[in-house]
Every structure is written in structure tokens, then in C-alpha cells.
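As agreed, record copied across for absentees:
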Amino acid sequence: MSNITEGGRCRMSLDRVTGGAYLPESNDCTYYIEVYPYEVNHFELNAKGLEVDIYQDIKLQKNFLSNYKTKAGLPYVMAALAAKEKGLDDLFLSNDKGNILETSSCNIFIVSNGVLYTPGLDEGCLAGTMRMQIINLAIANNIKVYECTILPQNLLAADEIFVTNAIRGINWIGGYRTKRFYNNMSRKLVVLLNDYWERELGI
């Protein structure tokens, strides 16, 4: 028993059973589940905006596995390490065309004139559960959302940028290179997100 009574994190990992190398002897799998408690039972917006840039050393390649989170996460690990070396909070990852896809651990949204834009799954970004929830939440509250190509120049032209994942919810970007950003939409969506969980799930 975990004894977790409020917020927590659950991670389930699947591994192929031993036998074979690149050609497995069996497709059977093993799994393990980890749970960790959280001190708070709701999503909180980061007080200080994240500082980010673009990771240049590795480009993401689009294939039929791109939308899934697998253990082949070396590009994300390298991006996170590079961000730390540069004194940044995170780095954007792009594909071989230069299109921005995500960060080392989050999906990305940019805001312009009150409209949300996010890379489409056909671009090769991860199909994050929080990404989909934010899209649905925005639509339900009459906030327009478009899935489209995000270029580096779109980052500089944005009014606001925020990133999402299932653990942290929404984090707003405070600065990309010399550009500074607001967090008006981020604050609004965090309130809507917490209201949704409280209303629909009773937490």
C-alpha cells in the first residue's frame, strides 16, 4: 500500500522480457509501477517564468513512434543536460526542417492575440495527455486552438509561451533569448484546469 491519500505521481514502465537482442525471442513483457506522493493536490503555476532556448545538437526525426513516450529518450536527456550547462530551465527541440516540436519534457503552446497554437501530432511531437486536456479545455471555454507548424520566428512574435506535461500541468515561459513574455493565458488555463479536476473528479 502506498498510503497516498491525495495528489501523487504514478509511473508504469513496460520492458520486453529477456531473450534476443534486436530480434526478440518473445513479445511478452514485464512491468513495474512507481508511485510518489505530492504535497499539493492541485496544479500551481510557476512563480518565475522559465528561461529557454533552442537545442541545436540533435534534431528529432519523424516516424510512427514519434508520438509515443518510449525509453529511447536520449535526445531529451541530452537537451536537458545542455539546458543545465547553459544555465537555462529547458530547451526547445526541433525537427530536421527547423520546426519547433516540444521541450525536453513538455509539449509547447504559443499564444498570439488570445489564440493558442501548438505543433500537430503529424509534426512528430509527443502526444502528451496534458496537451490534449489543454486543447479540450480551451475549446470548451471558447478559446481558439490551432495545431500547426511552429517556427523559431513564431516564438519571437508570440505574446506568450507555455509548456505542459501531466505532472506539472502548465509552466509559463518568461524568456526566450532577448524576448520576454506575459502569462495571462497561462494563469487563466491553470484556474480552468483546477476547476475541471475539482468539478469532474471531485478532488
About this structure: The mean pLDDT is 90. The radius of gyration is 18 Å. The chain has two domains: 8-37, 50-201. DSSP finds four helices and eleven strands in the chain.
